[in-house]
Amino acid sequence: MELTELGQDMDLGLERICFAPIIYPGEVPTLDQCTVQSIFGYYGHDFVKFNESRIDANGFERNYLNTIISCTQNAYAPECFAPFGGPVEPGVALGGMPKPEGNEQPDYNLATAVTITFIVNNHADPDHLDLAMQWEELFINFLKNYESDIMEIAFSAERSIQDGIQELSEAEMSTVIISYAVMFVYIMIALGKISGIRTFLLESKITLAVGGIVIVLVSVACSLGIFGYAGVSTTMLTIEVIPFLVLAIGVDNIFIMVHTYNRLDRREYPSIPEGIGMAVGQVGPSILLTASAEIFCFGIGALSNMPAVHTFAMYAAVALLIDFILQLTAFVALMSLDQRRYESKRFDLMCCFRMKEYQKADKPSQSFLQRIIDKFYAPFVLSKRIRPLIFIIFILTTCLSIMVAPHLEPGLDQELSMAKDSHVVNLWRILLSIGPPVYFVVTSGLDYSLTESQNIICGGPLCNNDSVSVKLYMASQFPEITHLARPSSSWIDDYFDWISVDTCCKLHANGSFCPSTAPFGVCQDCEKEIVDLRPTRETFMQYFSNFLSDLPHEGCAKAGRAAYVSAINYIYDQHGDTYIQDFYFNSYHTTLSTSRDFYTALKQARIISDDIQKQFDEKELGITIFPYSVFYVFYEQYLTIWEDSLFSLGMSMLCIFGITFLVTGFDIVSALTVFLVVLMILINMLGLMWAWSITLNAVSLVNLVVIVTDPVELWANPDSRSRIEKDFFDSRFGAFYRTEQLFLKPYNTTHIFHETELGVVEFGPAFNRDFLLEVFRLQMELTELGQDMDLGLERICFAPIIYPGEVPTLDQCTVQSIFGYYGHDFVKFNESRIDANGFERNYLNTIISCTQNAYAPECFAPFGGPVEPGVALGGMPKPEGNEQPDYNLATAVTITFIVNNHADPDHLDLAMQWEELFINFLKNYESDFMEIAFSAERSIQDGIQELSEAEMSTVIISYAVMFVYIMIALGKISGIRTFLLESKITLAVGGIVIVLVSVACSLGIFGYAGVSTTMLTIEVIPFLVLAIGVDNIFIMVHTYNRLDRREYPSIPEGIGMAVGQVGPSILLTASAEIFCFGIGALSNMPAVHTFAMYAAVALLIDFILQLTAFVALMSLDQRRYESKRFDLMCCFRMKEYQKADKPSQSFLQRIIDKFYAPFVLSNVFVR
Asked: What is the pLDDT of residues 603-616, one digit of tens each?
């Protein structure tokens, strides 16, 4: 009772959110009407009734226990109904009974625990859940602080798991911080070679350790930021694990680079750049190999259908890629700076201070660990006796692991997902006698007022032996196999019982519904016809909605509102009769405690529904059945976990082999060795998982992927009102109709005058008889389109007057055309007669009457509705004020075909094919009578496609022109003879390819992340990146060409100096461009938002490739030039050629130096 009263003083009472099945729509429930599954419902939630005790006629005491006996044996007895108007399921309200044998009911009298369940209304839209969430918070806080000496309490609310994950995440933050702090201290000590306290600040590597940690954090933040901004949802697994993963891999590479540099003999490499270059050159291939394998393997992991694995792998791949780039750029620079500090004897963290007396060693010294490995470990492992022993042990463990790996149990212990002290864990440890509800949903497609359809689903007399109800009943008789605890309730059998009982079906005197609870004499019995225990078709349809409106009570226990009002969707026809659409059969699973129980219950439910579906398909019923329970979405992954795991791991292994084979210079032996070692490690890990009882799930699959990789819509704002209203309409009423329209205007026709009893009426050119007959014939031809291809209009059109499941005829298709006034009948259109007053009455009189009153029944079109004159006619003079247009003066007619639409594009194939026929027919249609304009729903989509294809030639020509321009502009061609030597064709191709790769990467990244793009993005970004990229290419090449090569005789020095000169400006411009587009991505306008995101990423990749790949290409091209080899044909040389070491000026440079610059900088312009 205290829980029931929660929130009453805060206007947050349970009655505001509870599920109350026996109230009518719009009625506010009382607390008693709220559904509470508790044994106290047997006593009407009344202390007095619970405490009642008396001696019966036989001398036995009758008290609360007698009520328990009777109501647990028959919870559906009216005297046992709870105040909310329904039964209290003993399997829900009691728990801890001994497990029954076979399909027997539990002995509820031996229960060791009781359960109280409050049923609260839910909403698919989280914005409507505020009240429920607040009440649940009161519920949780009250029970957390409740203390009792006589009982153990376990509880859970709908929000408990969400709260538990949040609490666990906050608690884990301290673990993350401590781990990073410990790693920082470890890196700081391990990177340096500290000989004493006096030299600590000189020899320590605190700055380098901080830099390494920051690089890892930046890479993780970038990955989270990129995908977060792209709208790719993440999981707790990703946020908490990726920092450790990237830290472990990143720190590994940091140690490798620093220790390799420290082991160099500095006497051979006196300068810092040479030493660091040699160190990175030694370890670079191995770092590249491992990073490539890790990134590719996680990329393959992103192909998984398991959301946890998919998301984690995507985030990890991008984080590792960014970490790899930063390590080989930022960290190498940081190493150089730190080494300069060390060699200038400056203190770490306090670089303004120096140590005057310090002698650094040029010759490398070995650390304690290195000496242990060199003197003891390596000789021991590589000795003749130990090597075979290690090999044998490794093979044996692998064989044993192969034996036990297939016995790995899929699943996840749900207690591991919560903190150990969470209140949810206590609840999971308590086993109830019944599991979660399961719903077998049947889709629309049959007319259940027909006896044949009823027999397919019902379970009573005269029903099919293999009906849905019978099959579900038979499945429930074997709960240990099917995990169905009880037979499902059948609405149709309850409806038959309800309609057969005279005291149930009642009507008011005016024929409206009257509840069966109404006092005697207020209502009258329904006029119904029952044949063979079943209502006739008319009776079934007439009173079905009354069945779902009637509340159950002692005199009419089968009334359906409480049990079925939310279980059945139905519609009314124009006569008020009901047609049933979708519905479900409700049952319960048995008690489910382990992951295996949950996914086995899902598997068995699908086996049952698939068996019924097979029967539906054999009879060609056109309906579908499927099971649903709230936990299915979480456990479906375990049905295919082995297939998903083997696919991800197999593809990862292939990646490792391929990358190793390529990086080692096509060394097949090395590649196979690495492949086999990694494969054995993977197999051994599977064996250990079995030994340590670790189950196979999304988390363990991610860890296995880590093990494998370790060695190696467009313009409308989504938040705008229009989008919100569209989404609301689509979700409630389905997608809006598709329209196919023709606009027809006659050539060279004049106005028509027609004499009537009201005088002479003027008609516009659109009503010329010959013109209308031509239009009429055209409409008939369009209506018949596709009939010879089984693509007729009747298969896709909107037909409002047919019954569900009925196939429309062509006449029933909605066509908005003035010919609907004549019933689409040539004879009626051509009728003409002289009336009693001597006036001719013809097709024009119909136009006059029907345009004035389109809703007159005689004007209805064959599809059963009115033809709106404002839709079917056009070109009238604009009316003044709010007057109606004068439709008689129309200059054009319109024909509109209304076609059914679907929110799911996969269901639009037929409509799209018919529209294609419609467009092609009208494109080829010629007429001397009229001008035709037309449009189909797909016209804009087709137009964009055609425009995009047409623009491809423009893109190709533009890139070709730019290629020729770059080729000529980059080179200094002195004549035809030296063209192939002095040209820069390869460099131009490389520059173009870099631009295309950067654009392709941007499109690929966001395309894979599911970020939709626009035509604007695809067509404009290549030009944008090309313009910016070519600019930087020119700057770098021309800066290098202007150097005096006598000062920089080696190519690396020259290119290094050139890039050093222009690098800051290129970095500045690239940063500004990327940041500006990043800001543009904050726009609420989707087209601008998408374009800016794609452009920013494309420019970033282009910048990286220019300063890496293009610089390398420059170096190769310069080597070709200096060795006098031809461009494109590097196998051939020019023997006689004298290259100039001193730079020469181009014509444009001379113009700028001698004329433009002096003119602009003269006193006339500069004061």
From this structure: 899 899 999 999 99
